[in-house]
Design a protein that fits this description.
Blueprint lengths: L3 H16 L3 H7 L4 H8 L7 H11 L3 H9 L1
């Protein structure tokens, strides 16, 4: 079973690619560091609630929809 961090990374990368954004694009638009986005996608970090909201806004999805994908 994959850890929640790894699952989040998979979901984040999928949503980012679907939106046609690079890690750098997502980082700039969400006011985060590109290396942090990379760490999230690789499952090496997990986001805070405020970070989840920033990322969701840029990806034009709700934070709850991201969480729902993690539960699937």
């Amino acid at each position: 079973m994959k850890s929640i961090e790894v699952k989040f990374g998979i979901v984040l990368k999928e949503l980012r690619n679907k939106k046609g954004l690079t890690q750098e694009d997502l980082a700039i638009q969400s006011d985060l560091d590109r290396t942090y986005i990379s760490l999230l996608e690789r499952g090496l970090r997990q986001p805070t609630i405020s970070t989840l909201f920033k990322i969701a806004e840029v990806l034009e999805v709700t934070p709850s929809s991201i969480i729902k994908k993690l539960e699937e």
